[in-house]
Amino acid sequence: MHKKGKTKKSITKRMKITRNRKIIRRAANQDHFNARATGNQTRKKHTTKNIHKIDAKKILQKLKV
User: Fold this and answer.
1) What is the mean pLDDT of residues 3-26?
2) What is the mean pLDDT of residues 21-25?
3) Which CATH class is domain 9-63?
4) CB 59 within 8 A of CB 23
5) C-alpha R_g of the chain
6) Is the four-CA dihedral 32, 34, 37, 38 of positive or negative sign?
7) 64 or 57: which carries more pLDDT confidence?
8) What is the DSSP letter of 31?
9) pLDDT band at residue 12 using 50, 70 and 90 as cut-offs
10) What is the pLDDT of residue 40?
11) 41 membership: H or E segment, kind and range
12) Which SS3 state, helix, strand or coil, does residue 61 take?
């Protein structure tokens, strides 16, 4: 009997899949040390980022979608 693969929980916690199967992630380095960053840097950190199509294909395989 063949076992069904498990999804990688570390990826599911960090990524979100849209209806069009695009993958969105949070910007890195936005948890602390923000007081010394400029306003523009802080604003850019609080936006979501898209993932490149090649990387998205690998992530979708890990998520078993």
Assistant:
1) 85
2) 90
3) few secondary structures
4) yes
5) 15
6) positive
7) 57
8) S
9) confident
10) 94
11) helix 39-45
12) helix
To the question of pTM greater than 0.85 for the whole model, the response is no
What's residue 1's pLDDT?
64
The answer to whether 46 touches 27, Cβ cutoff 8 Å, is yes
Q: What does the domain layout of the chain look like in residue ranges? A: 9-63
The overall longest dimension of the chain from CA atoms, in Å, is 57
Angle at 40 between CA 37 and CA 18, to 5 degrees: 110
Give me 31's structure tokens.
Answer: 């948890």
CA–CA gap between residue 33 and residue 55 (Å, rounded):
29
- Nearest CA among 48, 64, 65 for reference residue 3: 64
Three-state DSSP at 2 gives coil
CA 48, distance to chain mean position in Å, is 9
